Amino acid sequence: MRAVVVRRPGPEALAELVEVPTPEPGPGAVRVKVAAATVNPVDLMVRTGVGGTPFAAPRDQWGVGWDVAGVIDAVGAGVDFTVGQRVIGISDRLDVSLAAQADYVVLEAQNVAPAPTSVPATAAATIPLNGLTALQALAALDLTATDSLLITGAAGAVGGFAVEIAAARGIRVIAAASAADEPTVRALGATDFIPREADLPNAVRALVPGGVTAALDAAALGPDALAAVRARGRFVSISVPTTPIPLRGTEVTTVLVHADRSQLDELVALVDNGHLTLRVAETYPLDQVVTAQRRLAAGGLRGRLVLIP
User: Fold this and answer.
1) Angle made by CA atoms 234, 238, 244, in degrees to the nearest 5
2) Under DSSP, is residue 100 helix (H, G, I), strand (E, B) or coil?
3) Burial, 281: exposed, middle or buried (Cβ in 10 Å; 0-12, 13-18, 19+)?
4) Which residue segments constitute the domains of the chain, with CATH numbers given?
5) Residue 198 DSSP label
6) What's the rounded mean pLDDT across residues 233-238?
7) Which residues contact 247 (CB under 8 A, 6 or more apart)?
8) Over the chain, what is the mean pLDDT?
9) Burial (Cβ within 10 Å: 0-12, 13-18, ≥19) of residue 54
10) What is the DSSP string of 31-58?
11) Computed from CA positions of residues 259, 66, 122, 34, in that sequence, does the dihedral angle turn out positive or negative?
12) Residues 6+ apart with CB under 8 A from 248
């Protein structure tokens, strides 16, 4: 089978499409014939080099890709999936030789959930990584309908999901994004909008005297986003390098996404009930992964890039 890998990570490295043996699922695992796999910023991190960081040890070959939608074509012992079942899944490890951008991927059964029935695989593949990140960030904030929430990067993949989910829970959402994205984030349910160019802490306090109850910093603004939170408020970062010091008695948490079958089921239900918006920006054949990564690195996307084997 074909798989996207990185063999010599570094600033000038390129992803490669190579031929490798088709993996077999062991106990508690399934093999998915990939119909669609997304391209995410973490893929660029793998390409430029993560070996030797706290996230992963050096290795000869790095698998690329976290999100997948496809069909189960083989199962290991002790799983509750069947061959032919449409699923979505997440490969939530960096230290692997093969990952989701491939013709086939083997995943633990807990990393997989039945796919939504209302959208095609290209859209379904955009759910796992960013949807789980948004859900887990909101869970860490533990908000109620009486709270106010600042979401930075509100038009992005994680931010957009978080806006829509939080708004549906009755939380007042103050969205920060590019001025051109205001119609998009308001359509997702944001109550208030702050353009990226504004003085964020002051703009927030003009809307919510004293600052918001909590912030989900999807744009990795760090201290600027924290300064918009009231004293003893809550703050979630999804980027370790930009997690700020918990000043003024704030509760600061870094959320690193992990697979969760029940949360994948929740996201699928939201999609099928019409309560979660999926955005596909562009699609590419698997053999154009380098082009897709360059497009992602160029920025300005509103929606995911999807590879189709």
Assistant:
1) 55
2) coil
3) middle
4) 2-127+278-308 (3.90.180.10), 130-254 (3.40.50.720)
5) S
6) 97
7) 226
8) 95
9) exposed
10) EEEEEEEEE-HHHHHHHH--TTBTTB--
11) negative
12) 231, 232
What pLDDT shows up at residue 55? 63
Number of alpha carbons in the 13 Å side-chain half-sphere of residue 305 = 25
Contact, 167 vs 190, CB < 8 A? Answer: yes
Burial of 220 (0-12, 13-18, 19+ CB in 10 A): middle
SS3 217: strand
Q: Distance between CA 248 and CA 283 in Å, rounded? A: 45
Calculate the CA 28 to chain-centre distance.
24
What DSSP designation does 102 have? B
Measured CA to CA in angstroms, residue 259 lies from 89, 113, 186 at distances of 8, 10, 29
Residue type, 100: A
Query: What sections of 62-220 are H helices per DSSP?
Result: 121-124, 128-141, 157-168, 182-187, 200-207
Report CA 134 to chain centroid distance, whole Å: 7
**pLDDT band (50, 70, 90) for residue 53:** low
Taking the alpha carbons at both ends of the chain, their separation in whole angstroms is: 10
pLDDT reading at 210 higher than 70 = yes
Distance of CA 215 to the CA centre of its chain: 17
**CA distances to 28, 33, 76, 268 from 24, in Å:** 12, 12, 8, 27
Residues 6+ apart with CB under 8 A from 180: none
Has residue 188 got a pLDDT over 90? Answer: yes
Q: Which of helix, strand or coil describes residue 166?
A: helix
Please give the Cα distance from 155 to 135 (Å, whole number).
16
Both structure tokens of 114: 């039945």
Alpha carbon distance 277, 34 (integer Å) = 22
